[in-house]
Amino acid sequence: MIVKQVNDVRGTDRSVRTDTFESNRLLVRADKVGFSLNHTVLYAGSVTHIWYKHHIEAVYCISGEAEIETLADGKRYHITPGTLYTLNGHEEHNLHAISDFECLCVFNPPLTGQEVHDAEGVYPLLEDAS
User: Fold this and answer.
1) Contact between residue 56 and residue 125 where contact means Cβ atoms under 8 Å apart
2) Pairing mode, if any, of strands 21-27 and 36-42?
3) How many Å apart are CA 130 and CA 123, to the nearest integer?
4) Coil, helix or strand for 111?
5) Which of 11, 120, 123, 126 has its CA 20 to 30 A from that of 56?
6) Which structural domains are found in the chain, ordered by start?
7) Distance CA 74, CA 51 (A)
8) Is 126 within 8 Å of 101 (Cβ atoms)?
9) Each residue of 60-83: pLDDT tens digit?
10) For residue 112, what pLDDT band results from cuts at 50, 70 and 90?
11) What is d(CA 55, CA 113) in angstroms, rounded to the nearest whole number?
């Protein structure tokens, strides 16, 4: 059984912080559960370019407000607490955080915990450290 709190991973090698968000990876590939789970906060007023070419991501909004802008068609989706969205078509998008946007993110295949967005907004497929 795995039991942990977000503060157990904050500030460790399972935590990634950028100018636009902080992501704490509660479950990663090494946990061997078949998916990874992140607790993420995107900062109010930030815009994050994201394109998960290699992963499917499901996001559940806990608090705050954001808009997702899909780049292929320019559609915008308003996200508020209790909303789930899933990028099952690998949609390239911008995430506009209207207020601090707190969410839980599930990834398949699971993340190692060290991924950061590259210039295209992509998480590469990484191997676990030996």
Assistant:
1) no
2) antiparallel
3) 20
4) coil
5) 11
6) 6-10+20-108 (2.60.120.10)
7) 14
8) no
9) 999 999 999 999 999 999 999 999
10) confident
11) 14
